[in-house]
Amino acid sequence: MTRPKIKRLFFPEEEKIHTWLPMLLDAFHIADQGVWASIHREEAKGRKLACAKGCSACCITHRSIPVYPIELTGIAWYVTEKLQGELRDRLQERLSANRPGDPCVFLVDGVCAIHPMRPLACRHFNVFSTPCAEGEDAYFTRRKDVLIPIQTYMDEAFFHMLPFYGVHKAGDRRKIIKKGLHHEAAKELQSLRWSELARKMANYERMMT
């Protein structure tokens, strides 16, 4: 299968400073290509993607979004050093007030505040047929309508992430992925203490003034 020309995120200067950032952006790029290929495959069968800009049902209803340490590092960096303006202020408020079990803290006024750096779980979750009803989690109510990502793309995305954890040899990375051991590092996004990130953002602002 020929891979589609999906643009990779680039932060040239920051990628020179943070060795983990190219790994993460490469992984996201591969995942995005895989999602596009998966959607294209289903559309060729006559299925229609229900997800569209402005829909945030999964951000509200999902209560166990997995996120990996390298993704958390990317999110913290992005909101602390790149996010600006009113969106930054509103997100900081939400982070400070967040409690475990709340809907995704990064959903601000119906918009994903970290969309470029959203985790793999969010990138992979797409629904066909009809948009999700209020309060519906399509994974449980109609799993047949939930996109099944192409495994080779998913595995390759994680392959690029594993050096973050000190696993550099290709053979070792493949063994870890084959056994599914990389998933043991995942946390639930909604269970984390995001108020710590709000404080980090405030400290960064003070340092930069």
3D structure, described in words:
The chain has 209 residues and is mostly helical. It has 10 helices and 4 strands. The chain has helices at residues 12-17, 20-43, 57-61, 69-82, 85-97, 120-124, 138-141, 151-161, 170-179, 195-208, and strands at residues 66-67, 107-108, 111-112, 187-188. The strands form 2 sheets. A two-stranded antiparallel sheet has the order 1-4. Strands 2-3 form a two-stranded antiparallel ribbon. It is globular and about 55 Å long. The chain starts with 11 loop residues before the first helix and ends with a helix. The relative contact order is 0.19.
Helical coverage, percent range: 40-55%
Strand order in the largest sheet:
1-4
- General shape: globular
Give the biggest beta sheet: 2 strands, antiparallel
Fill in the keyword field for this structure.
single chain; 209 residues; mainly alpha; two-stranded antiparallel sheet; 10 helices
